[in-house]
Amino acid sequence: MRFIKIKYGFAYIVILLTLITFLISFNFIPTGFEHRTIIESKSPQSATVTETKRIFFMKTHKCASSTVQNILMRFGHMENLDFLLPNMNNYIGNPIHFNTSMISNNYSTEDGKFDMFVHHTRYSQEIKSVMRPGTIYVTILREPTALFQSLYSFYHFDKKYKCNLTQFISDRLSNKSSANQIKRYSNKLGINQMNWDLGMDTDDFVNTDKINEHINMIERDFDFVMIFEYLDASLVLFAHLMQWPLEQMAYLPLNTRNNTYKQILSNYDINRLIQVNMADNMLYTRFIQKFKKMINEYGIEKLKKGIKSLMAINQKILETCVQSVANKGYARTTSYKLKANTKTMCKYIAMNELKYTSHLREIQYERQKKYKALDKLMNNN
């Protein structure tokens, strides 16, 4: 008899607990906590994380930055965000450091602040004054020797300097002082390119104290630094940081070239490029170490799974959108012929920077035009 009472008592408790859980789940019983969907916490203490939508991307030359830029353009376009856009072409400053006078009234906003800044500029901390609160600051770096080779070939330095890269190294880069005095191509391209884009003065390129001071500033100002050689890993980590679905990182490589156009250099040439690009080497070394630390914190096996997933996403994009691939872009960069009647997404993922920028200008101009017309109506007594 006692056993039967215990049995029914236990059953009663189970039924009661089940009923309470049911009522709580439908908010019939208040718990004192709001119902939240937890995407993924950046830290154990964080209860909820929402995706970030405000970005400054420092577009460094020849570091796969056009590919990353396209990802950000598509996101901002889809979300109807406000871009800080160049008045023409694809530069907002450089060689001059960015300043607010460079902002075009045609594409400005009511508050003079922006959600997205993804075009070429020359970094200055004045950028912070025009970005909205909560902006994430991002850039991308590349091994400096490979970067300089790519610059030399892509921008046809051989025509300006009237010699190939090996001759340029032996004739123009014979010592540090002469290297530092070489005028930059188009006043913005040359040695220590990444530090130049990130705002460093050329007079400081041979001063290790100044270089470290500048790198420390970059480390403070930027939330995340991608690495060209590990682009897919960078994008997986970036998606995690931004709390975006990995599908948002889908890409087709843009403004890239086949390795057949790369000149083979001797060990002497490579060492010389390392020496004259001292500032960029110090920058790259610092952030490679930070990148490795970030991978350890995220988890190497988890990262490999993310890379595998991103590669599968990109392969599906290629099969869905692209009919053929050629090297017919500027300086024999990769170009894509799309399949007929493809999705709208295909058009934007393969669109070059200048064309996409023009499209965003049209959208933003019309939006601001309608806002101004409405303000005029309401202020007209």
UniProtKB/TrEMBL annotation:
Q: Which Gene3D superfamilies match?
A: P-loop containing nucleotide triphosphate hydrolases
The membrane-spanning stretches of this chain are 9-29
Q: Which keywords are on file for this protein?
A: Glycoprotein, Golgi apparatus, Membrane, Signal-anchor, Transferase, Transmembrane, Transmembrane helix
In which compartments does the protein localize? Golgi apparatus membrane
Query: Is Glycoprotein included in the keywords of this UniProt record?
Result: yes
User: What is a single molecular function from GO for this protein?
Assistant: galactosylceramide sulfotransferase activity
Annotated GO biological process: glycolipid biosynthetic process
Q: Which SUPFAM superfamilies match?
A: P-loop containing nucleoside triphosphate hydrolases
Pfam families cross-referenced by the UniProt entry: Gal-3-0_sulfotr
Source domain of life is Eukaryota
**How does the record say this protein sits in the membrane?**
Single-pass type II membrane protein
State any GO CC term: Golgi membrane
The primary site where this protein sits is: Golgi
The family line of this record is: Belongs to the galactose-3-O-sulfotransferase family.
Write down what this protein is called.
Galactosylceramide sulfotransferase-like
